[in-house]
Here is the input.
Amino acid sequence: MIWVAVIGDWFNLIFKWILFGHRPYWWVQETMVYPNQSGPCLEQFPITCETGPGSPSGHAMGSSCVWYVMVTAALSYTVRWKDKSAVSLHRLTWSFLWSIFWIIQISVCISRVFIATHFPHQVVIGVFAGILVAEAFEHTPAIQTASLGMYIKTNLFLFIFALGFYLVLKLLDIDLLWSVPKAKKWCANPDWINIDTTPFAGLVRNLGALFGLGLGINSEMFITSCRGKNSCKISFRVVCIAASLATLQLYNFVKIPTHTEYLFYILSFCKSAAMPLTVVALVPYCVHSLMRKTEKKLN
Here is the structure.
């Protein structure tokens, strides 16, 4: 799922750089469509003033990516049922899960349009682009067994391609960060402009998450804990989930300084890498070690 989220967000960045989509909250201020200053007054919110281009919607694309993977993964278990009652249950589950999927996507789309961050066509494009990316990864089983080297090579490719694309267009006098000055100019409150909404901030976060996942899955801690005898125990899984959720909440309290842009990107990469590494390897290993000590004492 992290693979799909990262690659989907990377494609979203490239598409945004290609499509040059405006956002409603600044477009209504600059367009010549409305004569005599009769344009609509759009209310802005603290989450309105994103600084990247608007098309396709990153939230809509990311949501459809992740939820599509979860729904199809859940249905892959029920499709194996053979008897009549199980087939009926599968159909009911299919209808229920896809209904939930579309309710969530419509809710995300409406919310993004409501806060004046996206036009309707941008969220629709985002949803279907996300589904296409997720569907492509359904037929790429190699990511399930990817080595650390594969994670590093993928990270380097994504970073070099995005940076190269940016630099080449900059040499052609095409500024891919054209949307940042517009956001700063037309945002109702300067405090609502955040560096973590810039295109490169999203790229760095995603590369960090993918790198951290690769480190975690290919570590000895993961192999010892998640592929050992404890991995099948319900108690082990429940404790890991609870501990992981608590740890992720602690990460939310870690605020990255924004006064220096390059320092922000480096620390953002490190934080994003640390989170999946903690959840995938460190927490399960600690739980495994505690359970093993407890079992030894009981014996």
User: Anything to note?
Assistant: The chain is about 70% helix and 0% strand. The chain has a mean pLDDT of 88. Residues 3 and 143 are 8 Å apart (CA to CA).
